[in-house]
Amino acid sequence: MKLTAALIQITSSDDMPANIAVLTNFIAQAARKGAGLICTPETSHLMTQGREKALSLTYFEADDPGLKALRGAASKHKVWLLIGSLIIKKTQDRLLNRSYVIAPDGEIAARYDKIHLFDIDLGGGESYRESALYDAGDTPSIARTSFGDIGMTICYDLRFPLLYTLLGRAGVSIITVPSAFTVPTGQAHWHTLLRTRAIETGAYILAPAQMGLHATGRETYGHSLIIDPWGEIVADAGKVPGIVLAELDLAKVAAVRQKMPSLSHAKPLSAPKVWSKDP
Prior knowledge:
Blueprint: E1 2-9, H1 16-32, E2 37-39, H2 51-57, E3 59-60, H3 65-77, E4 80-91, E5 94-102, E6 108-113, E7 119-123, E8 126-129, E9 141-145, E10 148-152, H4 161-169, E11 174-176, H5 183-201, E12 204-207, E13 211-213, E14 219-221, E15 225-227, E16 233-236, E17 242-249, H6 251-259, H7 262-265
Parallel strand pairs: 1-2, 2-4, 3-4, 10-11, 11-12
Antiparallel strand pairs: 1-17, 4-5, 5-6, 7-8, 9-10, 12-15, 13-14, 15-16
Helix pairs in contact: 1-3
């Protein structure tokens, strides 16, 4: 019931071969340290901006060289691998932000397309419109593994608790939150939201993150986190690239849910009744 998990924290660029080389090197290091589950961040093998450039640098899933290389790394090192997400072509002019769980034989065990797209204005000229280029997923995903079920989410999904409640009530032991959080939102909300999702679900939260200043000019927050089912932070990668590891005691999931059975106590609710005084 124990598993060593590793989170990879990197600063991806628009150079896909260079990103793949960094990722496969860190995967090898994590495997040598005994990790049985290795997780990479959102947009692991490509971070770029601009519609035409993004479309010119991306591939359909069957042809994507990064997916092929990472599947090969999982097979070589005989590890479970969460590819936090890859930018994958859906059509010639639309993309998907897709997360994968890869089994130790290199086969794709699960896919998840990001449901909640990051369309937001942060002020100071910083704004994002993922929906201008990406299509949203519409189905939560759970990967069944040899050590338990993994609920899959991506970055902005973190702000939508219903998704996590659904995964928690489905009995997952681990929820992954690969991300590329901005610095302002990371400083304000990253640790708090992730601890909250762990507490709400009684699951381990694994949140591998992008960090630093990217070639696109975007800056991401880092602080890849491993959080236990009681909401305690057991590993924090800080603001440097590399690997952070922790041992997960998966028996703790059942123990916490027995102690605090809020998932089973949740009631279906109707729309709120609005009360007002008579005029």
